[in-house]
Amino acid sequence: HNGSNDDWYVTEFGNVLGWEPSGGWRPKTGIVGEAVRICGRFLGAPEKEIDYGGFDGLNAGLGGQLIQLPRLRGPWLIYLREGSRVLTRPKFIDDDPVHDLPQQRLGRAMAQPLLLAREELTRIANDIVADPASPEAIKTTRAVMDLALSLNGLPPQTFEIFSKFDAAGALAPLLLYRCEEQHLSTILELFDGLCSSWTLLPIEVWDAAFQAQGTFLVSRLDDPQWALANISERQNEIAARAPQLAPLICRDYSPLAYEA
């Protein structure tokens, strides 16, 4: 310590897109990369990332090329990425009205103005708490999982639905039960960017997810024994990657006895 009161500020993104008077978007500071892409997501279908082409950070002086986007309908997030690194804070752009409503409930909620979107997302969370095995809850769980698996470097807190995990009952554990095994680590990492933890979800939530997954599997193949075996196999796969969750999810789990 040199006696100086130096303060450090850490931010999620080191760069932002700003509007240029000449028309178009440009990073506030220069970005140089070999494969920087201009990307966007329509909030009515947030799981789909649209690639608008490459970005030349060495072109047109400080900040690189001017980003000219096509005419957008509805609310969008626009950002620059290179591989799995998101280089700019997602910029919210709300252009022309949307003619066709999004097909799934999550998209319809997110495509609304912020306050209305938050109210609808709260209703979605409450509906999942009330009946996580309902057809609508199954569709929403699938939509949230598709969004989670599409992030590829976007922080989970970019999307309001992930901040609802603590209040959405079985939603988060159901993502673990229903994703493919190869995606388990990706789903487990969701809480790394949230102000919460898998271990903070109450046991009642894990029990609700267990029951909902059992109902879901039996509805696909009327064989309770197969459903139970499927769930047990997935629980073991989760526990192998996150041993701290074993006491919450494994029905036959018993802690090792203490030996003096």
Q: Pairing-aware structural class of the strands and helices? A: alpha+beta
Q: What fraction, in percent, of the residue positions are helical?
A: 25-40%
Q: Oligomeric status of the shown chains? A: single chain
Shape type: globular
- Let me know the number of strands: 7
- End-to-end C-alpha gap: 46 Å
Largest sheet: 5 strands, antiparallel
Beta-strand share of residues: 5-15%
Instruction: Calculate the mean pLDDT score and round it.
Output: 88
Order of helices and strands: EEEEEEEHHHHHHHH
CA-atom Rg in angstroms: 22 Å
Q: Pick out the low-confidence regions.
A: 253-258
The total count of helices amounts to 8
Please give a handful of descriptors for the protein shown.
alpha+beta, 8 helices, two-stranded antiparallel ribbon, disordered C terminus, 260 residues, 35% helix
Characterise the protein shown here.
By secondary structure, the chain is α+β, with helices and mostly antiparallel strands. The chain contains 8 helices and 7 strands. It has helices at 105-110, 114-130, 135-150, 171-178, 184-188, 203-220, 224-241, 246-249; strands spanning 17-19, 25-27, 37-42, 50-54, 75-82, 85-86, 91-94. Strands 3, 4, 5, 6 and 7 form a 5-stranded antiparallel beta sheet that branches. The chain has a two-stranded antiparallel sheet with strand order 1-2. β3 (37-42) and β4 (50-54) form a beta hairpin. α3 (135-150) packs across α4 and α6 packs across α7. It is globular, with a radius of gyration of 22 Å. It starts with 16 loop residues before the first strand and ends in an 11-residue tail after the last helix.
